[in-house]
Amino acid sequence: MNLEALVDCLSSASCAVTQVSTGLIVGMLLFLVTSGLSLIFGVLGIINFTHGAFYMMGAYFAFTAYALTGSFLASMAAGAIGVGLFGMAFERLVMSRVYGRDILMQLLVCYAMILILDDGVKILYGGEYRMMGMPDVFALPPVEIAGGFVPGYYLFMVGVALAAGLVLWLGINRTRLGKIVRALAINPQMVGALGINTTLLYAGVFGLGSLLAGLAGALAAPIRTLTPGMGVSILIESFIVTVIGGMGSIAGAFLAALLIGFTRAFGAIGFPLFVDGLMFALMALVLVVKPSGLLGREAA
Amino acid sequence: MSTPMLEVRGADVYYGASQILFNLDLTVEKGQTMALLGRNGAGKSTTFKAIAGLVPPRRGEVRLSGETVSGRAPYRIARAGIGYVPEDRQVFPEHSVEDNLIVAMKRGRRGEAYWTLTRIYEVFPILAGMRTRHAGRLSGGEQQMLTIARALMGNPDVLLLDEPSEGLAPIIVQAIGGLIRTLRGMGVTILLAEQNMHFCLDIATHATVVDKGQVVYRAPVAELRGNTAITQRYLAV
């Protein structure tokens, strides 16, 4: 524990700004991953344990597309859309066969998929760490904010995540398709009886949730080292975010993701050996004080 | 004779191993309001679920305007022209009244778009006054009206109403009856399942009586009204 360092950092503008920006991008990546996880759970009622592996796939797809084309835009599209399509195929070919089955069966199927994807990455890219590097379009001097320096790419990431969250929220709450999806979450049989193809809709929702994980992976690729198995820790963290924010609440996921981001960023200075412990302590605290999560609905 | 709007031919329907409907035949002509009468457990709801594709018949078939639809997924049967109002109503409780209608919006099988939000609110003025209210907050009668309106939003050829009077106060039942008569007057083809015979005799044009999963009687309503043998045997409470 190093509280002195934490106090020093908080009282120095440059250190505080740097840590806030770090917390923000950690939080935004978590938000994207968690909102996809939460969307899939909310509508299909299944926990997609492969979600972290989809994040990893997004990063590797982006890495590959960037290496091939040199275009950052292409790398983002490859990560997001590629994983979205993969998720849809995975739902149709695999997950749809274990709907309504024991959760252990779903877990087993997902775990098998995680192993296959991780080993697939090892076969294609080798076991060692890979770096995509900062794309040329972002090779700019960092932006100075209140005496601290923030890489331009961080601001871009925050913008993309906020835009994605806003589009998702508006889509679910304001469009007809969103209304249908919310009805599907509550009463799929009735939705089908109204002439709506629920099978297609399930695949679409799973694909959209996967796309969010892939987008997060693609956004993370320039600033993270890529390794097989990089999905595991983000999956666990996004479960923590879900518990803290409340199941099925996008706003809750956003709030909790930021909370975890800042906990990690400042915890790394104040409690460098206990960062993971801090997250779990926060989760335990929320479970004690408000078991349904910060913005989750009370269980009926 | 023209092709019937809805035809069930020789339907055997099972829940698992137990057979519920036996060689059931049912015909509804365009513009009819057909009452499907019978005691609790006679097979009325199962007939509806078989038509809507929720419990497909193991033998026999369901035809809409001559086209066989049984065996298709429920959403395709709905698109082929069935508007299903289930017994337990099943509004989307956390959606507003208007959003319940918007979810169900679709064109008819020949592209008809007769039923729109505007027309629904004309025919169901009570819903117009509560369009932003959560459907779960409505009374039973209001929810019943909403589910009928919701089914109409899909511009169906045939409206299936499963026990619309069930569990409602007499004055509300009257209002629902009035509404169904209005729809009948507009030319909507209706199949109406009921235990409440008097409610049905007032609003239906024809009746089919089922007992133990089989059709035991069919006639225009006027004829059924005079046939005390049938009403006593199969419908008396």
What does this structure look like?
The complex is a heterodimer of chains A (300) and B (237). By secondary structure, chain A is mainly alpha-helical. Chain A has a single domain, classed as ABC transporter involved in vitamin B12 uptake, BtuC, CATH 1.10.3470. Helices cover 73% and strands 2% of the residues of chain A. Chain A has twelve helices and two strands; from the N terminus they run αααααββααααααα. In chain A, strand 1 and strand 2 form a beta hairpin. The longest helix of chain A is centred in the N-terminal third of the chain and has 32 residues. The mean pLDDT of chain A is 92. Chain B has one domain: P-loop containing nucleotide triphosphate hydrolases (Rossmann fold), CATH 3.40.50.300. Chain B has a six-stranded mixed beta sheet, sandwiched between helices. A four-stranded antiparallel beta sheet of chain B has the order 2-1-4-5, covered by helices on one side. Chain B starts with 5 loop residues before the first strand and ends with a helix. Chain B contains ten helices and ten strands. The chains are: A mainly alpha (300), B alpha/beta (237). Chains A and B meet through helix 7 and helix 8 of A and helix 2 and helix 3 of B.
Distance between the termini of chain B: 37 Å
Amount of helix of chain B: 25-40%
The portion of residues forming beta strands of chain B comes to 25-35%
- How many domains make up the coordinates of chain B? 1
What is the CATH H-level superfamily of chain B? P-loop containing nucleotide triphosphate hydrolases
Mean pLDDT of chain A: 92
- Average residue-wise pLDDT of chain B: 92
CATH class of chain B: Alpha Beta
* Shape verdict of chain B: globular
Which overall shape of chain A is indicated by the principal axes computed on the Cα atoms? Answer: globular
Decide which structural class fits the backbone of chain B.
alpha/beta
Given the helix and strand composition of chain A, which structural class is it?
mainly alpha
* Spatial arrangement of strands, main beta sheet of chain B: 6-7-8-3-9-10
